[in-house]
Structures are given as C-alpha cells and as structure tokens.
Amino acid sequence: MIQHVVSASIITIGDELLIGQTIDTNSAWMAVELNKIGIRVKRRVAVGDDADAIKAALDQEAVHSEIILITGGLGPTADDITKPLLCAYFGGKMIVNDDVLQHIHQIFTSVLKRPLLDRNLKQAEVPDVCTVLPNPRGTAPGMWFEKNERIFISMPGVPHEMKGIMEFQVLPKLRDQFQLPVIAHRTLLTAGIGESFLAERLIDFESSLPVHIKLAYLPNYGMVRLRLSSLGFEKDVLIRELESYFQSLQEILNDVLVVNEDIPLEEVVGRILVRHQKTMATAESCSGGYIAHLITSISGSSEFYKGTVVAYSYDAKETFLDVPHHTLEHSGAVSEQTVTAMLKGLLKHSGADYGIATSGIMGPGGGTSEKPVGTVWVAVGSGTAMETHCIRFRHDRKRNIELTAANALLYLLRFIERDVKN
Prior knowledge:
The chain is an alpha/beta fold. It has three domains: 6-177, Molybdenum Cofactor Biosythetic Enzyme, Chain A (3-Layer(aba) Sandwich); 182-259, Alpha-Beta Plaits; 265-421, Maf protein, CATH 3.90.950.20. The chain contains 16 helices and 17 strands. The protein has helices spanning 15-18, 26-36, 51-64, 82-89, 98-112, 118-121, 159-177, 195-201, 203-208, 235-252, 265-275, 290-296, 314-321, 325-331, 336-350, 397-421, and strands spanning 6-13, 39-47, 67-71, 94-96, 125-127, 131-133, 142-147, 150-155, 182-191, 213-220, 223-232, 257-259, 280-284, 305-310, 354-360, 375-382, 386-392. The strands form four sheets. The chain has a six-stranded mixed sheet, sandwiched between helices. Strands 14-13-15-16-17 form a five-stranded mixed sheet, sandwiched between helices. A four-stranded antiparallel sheet has the order 10-11-9-12, with helices on one face. Helix 11 (265-275) packs parallel to helix 16. The model has no long low-confidence stretch (mean pLDDT 94).
C-alpha cells in the first residue's frame, strides 16, 4: 500500500433533498466518520431522482475523488432508480443474491410478520459486478463497485441502515485497502468577540502556521469556534506539533476562551456543576423548554439537572413560579422584574443551586415599540446572588430561541465560574 492522502466524494440521491422536504444528515455523519480514519471528504453533491443527473454526478466525482459514496434510491418503489442505474453504469446484469433473499424472508416472517410482496423480493436482486454489503438493519443491501481505480459504494438513504453498513463493513474495508494518514483536530470555543476581530488578533499566529496546519473559523450563536487541523503519516510528531500551536492559540485568546474542547456549551456547564457537586434548573417562557432539551441531550445530565418549568402564560408564571400578579401587570412578562421573580420561584421550588429564567418576544408577531420582536430578558444566579441581561435579537423565531438558549447557558457558565472561585 502506498502512503498518500485519500479523498472521497459523497453523493446523496433524492428529490426530497432538493426540495427541502428531507434534511441531509447522512453526509455530515459520513464526513465525520471518514475523517476519523484519515479520509478527507473533498466534495458533497445532492442530485434528484434523475438518471442523467446521477450518471453525470458519478462521472464528475470520479475525476475528483478515489472513493465515491452514494446514499439513497435503493428502496422497493418505482422512484428508487439507483440500483438498476448502477448496474447499467458498471456494465453488469441483475441477479438474485441468495443471502440477501434469505435475509429479506427472515425480516418479513420473523420480525415484521407481514406477507412478502414481489417488490420486496426484488430487493434481493443486485448487479453481478458488485460486492454485496449486507444490511442487517433493513432489506436493501449496500453495493461496492470498483472501476478505473475508483471505489463506488452505494448504500440506503435511511440513516440507521446506512450507518450500520458504514460502521461494520465500509469503514473496515477502506482501512484495509488504503494506508491512511492521521487527520487531527483541536477546537476551542470563544465568546464575546466577533469573527473579524478574532482574525485581526490572530494575524501573526496564522502567518506562523506551517502549510499542513490549517485554522478554521466556525461562528454560530454569537460565539466562534476555532479549529486547528493537521494531516500526516507520523502520528506522534503530528500530535505534538498540533498541540504546541493549540497551546499558543489558547494563550493568545485566554480572555475570550470558553472551553478548549469541541463540546457543546451545555456540556461545559454540566461539567463544572458536576465537578463542584452543584445542580441547576431552568424556568423557560420564550425558549419553551429548548434549554432543557439541550441539557437533557447530554448523557448523565440527571447528575446535575433538576428539571424545568415551562411557564408560558401569566397564570403559569404565577402558579408554578410564584411570580407576583402585580409584577406581571405593571412590568409585563418580558421584563427584568419578571425573570428575576421567575428565577427566585424556580430556585425555591426546585432546590437547585443555580438556575436560568427566560422571557421574551420570539416573533414574528407580538412586538411593540418599547419591546420589539427579539427582545429577551434572561436571569441567572443562585439563592444568594442573581444577574439579569437584556438581549435584542433580529432573526426568525427558531433562531431567536436558539440564540436565547446559547446566551443563557453562557451567562450561567460565567456566573458559576465566578461563584465557585469565591
């Protein structure tokens, strides 16, 4: 095997991807897994259920990459055209694969307990020029083709099925076929500084980087992730060099650094709470439980998270969080006074050490000249100290909710960091 950088292209097939009916999560997942084993994804292409478009994509990506991964179009219905198209493209003929046929029979008789239709049985037909990749999670097998020193791998578009074929067959086969390099990344998260200002601060640092180490800026939710990436065949040397530059990067950005790992903000908050044996809870109005969703997405969050109260109406704020009626009448739900009262009630009833309270106007309606759409009040704190923040967002409802959650978690993290030092 020759040492060289192996590149891959991903082709996703389906009209539903092009009209936005289905979000392509397959490509992102595949790119991460390929990167882990040292294969660089060079291009990602989405095409509809159109034979000419698929053929053109296959031809084009074979020019750019050694490995072409294809998902979609392998189902039993008439719009699933990938398998017969690949059969013709590689000059084969369709044959029944006995192992796949037996697998389909077993799924329908033992698992689904449904009668087999002819269109289900046709799933056992594969081109005679491919290596069959069994699909234990479904009926459509994957297919591995080789042509002109290029590898073409076709898999179902159903994410659960595609992931099983990738994990247990495709990735191991690719490791065996190529002597792959190491691709290493180190990522940190910054807050309180924009992307352009970061770039200004890092002019000298970027100019000092060797050609094989790249710096990427990844802004999101008002914060910026910075990723250093390196590629090489001597793992120990590569890791030592990358760590040296990553240490320098942290020193330069020490005042705006949130965390020096590629983990979500809610996990950072969880770690500091666990480390100090503290707990938190949330009282959410405008964010509607989204902060709770982020936190409970973390495995083990029950160790530090008490729960949430989604108090959307005036009555709910009064009943569940003890917000005084006169506060809501005189100051309104979107106010410093209300989020402070929400937080006090939350901490009283939950027994948590720390908490977050949110109330705002997410849009598109509901704004006033004094409190336009995007106005959000956030309170964070403990039973002995609290702080409030008023934020003005200018996005659609979904993004305003996401930004509220991100900022609230950041405010709480900074509060806890200061509190545990005292």
